[in-house]
UniProtKB/TrEMBL annotation:
It comes from Denitrobacterium detoxificans. The gene is moaC. This is Cyclic pyranopterin monophosphate synthase. The lineage of its organism: Bacteria, Bacillati, Actinomycetota, Coriobacteriia, Eggerthellales. Homohexamer; trimer of dimers. Residues 14-155 form the Molybdopterin cofactor biosynthesis C (MoaC) domain. Pathway: Cofactor biosynthesis; molybdopterin biosynthesis. Catalyzes the conversion of (8S)-3',8-cyclo-7,8-dihydroguanosine 5'-triphosphate to cyclic pyranopterin monophosphate (cPMP).
């Protein structure tokens, strides 16, 4: 196995995708931000001082996904054809570890020469960061965790799903 972003001299590079065919590609990623139950209730009840936390996190995630190539050096700019960020409140007893918080799922699609996993991962990460930013005044102990790829499909390697 070789790293595709390293050239023969060991230098980083952007992969040349000019000869690859366009294919439909999709990626799904997730993240979780844990918090105090009281913080979750402020969010769900729409009483956070900065406004609608979940709406803001959704928009921030979509915007971040669209800007991924600006912040991840070797990512290609993509003409994104699909973007969706979902924010689901998780209450006590709904997770195996007992944590309370917001579960973020991001789905991105493109018809192109390279995958869209980084856009989905960036969207999930930034949506979690946005929740933190909007609620840090009441809960500095929030923790972002479990940011990971769930699924990618398309291109030469086809379908991959987390077990």
């Amino acid at each position: 196995m070789e790293l595709t972003h390293i050239d023969e001299q060991g230098q980083v590079r952007m992969v040349d995708v000019s000869e690859k065919p366009d294919t439909v590609r999709i990626a799904v990623a997730e993240g979780f931000i844990s918090m105090k139950p009281e913080t979750l209730e402020l969010i769900v009840e729409g009483k956070a001082a900065k406004g609608d936390v979940l709406a803001c996190a959704r928009v921030a995630g979509i915007m971040a996904g669209k800007q991924t190539s600006s912040i991840i050096p070797m990512c290609h700019p993509l003409l994104i054809t699909k973007s969706k960020v979902e924010c689901t409140p998780v209450r006590a007893g709904e997770r195996a570890d007992g944590r309370v918080g917001i579960h973020i799922t991001s789905t991105f699609g493109v018809t192109g020469k390279t995958g869209i996993e980084m856009e989905a991962l960036t969207a999930a990460s930034v949506a979690c960061l946005t929740v933190y930013d909007m609620c840090k005044a009441v809960d500095r102990g929030m923790e972002i965790m479990d940011v990971r790829l769930l699924k990618k499909d398309g291109g030469k390697s086809g379908l991959w799903e987390r077990a």
